[in-house]
Amino acid sequence: MGRANTLTNVVSTFMVLWCPVWVTMNWMSLEYFDGSLPALIKAFWTTDDALSMIWRYLPQASWTASLAYASWLAFQALLYYALPGKTSFGQRTPGGCRHRYEINGAMAWAITHLLFAVAVVQEWLDPAWIAKNWAGLFVAANVYGYLLAVFVFVKGRYAPTNVEDRKFSGSWAYDFWMGLELNPRIGSHFDVKLFHNGRPGIVAWTLIDLSFAAWQYEKFGSVSNSMLIVIVLHTVYTLDFFFNEDWYLKTMDITHDHMGMMLAWGDAVFLPSFYTIQAQYLAYHPVQLSTPAFIALMALGMGAYAAFRASNSEKLHVREADGDTMVWGRPATALRCNYWTADGKEHQSLLLTCDWWSIARHTNYTADLVLAWAMCAPCSGDGLVLPPWTYFIFQFVLLNHRIIRGEESCRNKYGEKWEEYCEIVPWRLIPGIY
After folding, report:
1. How many C-beta atoms surround the C-beta of residue 42 within 10 A?
2. What is the mean pLDDT of residues 145-153?
3. How many domains would you assign to the chain?
4. Beta strands 86-89 and 100-103: pairing type?
């Protein structure tokens, strides 16, 4: 309570208003300005009637797309609730809770894509339908994202799942943006955060890519090898998420970030519209890479993914073994830290100091950034002015923001032990530099 200030209010209000503008600008630039953000900005800057121009270029709602989007949400919710899955438990919350989850995301992804494939093969569905109805789906997702943000805000104030894991800042704007509840639930089973973090957007990610690839084929007669790189790397990334969904329960998204507009609107709109930006761009502007460039970028992306997965798996493995295990042929090393939850109970955690985690404190983020670069590079073009490259810029800012917030949380949680850990592993992201 009471930790918000004027700057917090201003920044939170700005984010609530600006984020939809940002993704809409990306859509406009692709639809009307040949994928050039500078051209879009110049057009708005020089026009005599900006309001009319905005209205003319805004994506339009569609009843067909809105119904399809509502059906999509209902179908994914049904799969989330009804499919069997492995029982897993999240990390202990500050309030002392360990929530139970049924992990079935991989099965939901497989069923969804199988049904999509059958519908396309049987000619019940145009494979490019998503791409052709993208504007209407984009509007429907925005409406839902804001409604969800309002819902979790009201629920957090008046009907929290666990009072001990709810926090107020003293700022309505900040609380709306960052969230009140850590793990809001409807009933005992339906976890609002995990569902929205993992289902409507991430399951759709590869479907959206495939639809824009089909649209590229329909317009140009072939699918570019740059599109293939994007689809392969995105598919690997999404499958990694679902095959390691129990690991995701231990990440910052679940253990630290409260459910506000940042996650609610972000999961509904930002993830499916922004994380697929490369496929959207290539559907308009196919890039055919040379064979050496194709091989190099694919290898770089897969290598970065391998490092990302290996580092995360190592952390999970060592913690599950309570440090009593081998990694890279040597005994694992870690710093043991005690901490206390809000219920007054003492617990212990491990901060790894071996192998991947001896290189930097966030080696997984380093690999994630290299992978993000490999996803954007196939789009080629004029560099950072293109919408696809805004994904890499966003990832760089996001991951550094997470580093700062995460390390502040660890400093408060572990005290002197955290300072000792930073002396053992001095680099955050890039050894010798940062």
Report:
1. 12
2. 96
3. 2
4. antiparallel
* Integer CA distances (angstroms), 299 to 154, 233, 235, 272, in order: 47, 10, 15, 25
Domain finish residue from 288, 310, 328: 288
Is the same domain home to 216 and 96? yes
Enter the pTM of the model.
0.88
Structure tokens at 359: 């290189």
The per-residue pLDDT for 4 is 62
Mean pLDDT along residues 202-207: 96
pLDDT, tens digit (0-9, with 9 covering 90-100), for 10-46: 889 999 999 889 899 989 999 998 888 888 888 888 8
Specify whether 293 is located in the same domain as 279: no
Is 336 in the same domain as 198?
Answer: no
Mean pLDDT of the chain: 89
- Residue 131's Cβ-count burial label (10 Å; 0-12, 13-18, 19+) is buried
Q: Quickly state the pLDDT bin for 381 (edges 50, 70, 90).
A: low
- How far apart are the C-alpha atoms of 344 and 358, rounded to whole Å? 32
Residue 33 sits in the same domain as residue 106: yes
Question: What is the per-residue pLDDT across 165-180, written as a single tens digit (0 to 9) for each?
Answer: 888 888 888 999 999 9
Whole-number pLDDT of residue 3: 61
Residues spanned by the domain of 200: 1-288
Q: Are residues 268 and 335 in the same domain?
A: no
**Contact assessment for residue 29 and residue 387, using Cβ atoms and an 8 Å cutoff:** yes
Q: Are strands 326-327 and 330-331 parallel, antiparallel or unpaired?
A: antiparallel
Question: Do 276 and 367 lie in a common domain?
Answer: no
Q: Do 270 and 377 belong to one domain? A: no
170-209 core/surface letters (b: 16 or more CB in 10 A; e: else):
ebebbbbbbbbbbbbbeeeeebbbbbbbbbbbbbbbbbbb
Nearest to 273 by CA among 109, 378, 137, 386: 137
Q: What is the mean pLDDT of residues 119-133?
A: 96
Please count the helices (runs of H) and the strands (runs of E) in the chain: 21, 8
**H or E element that contains 208:** helix 200-220
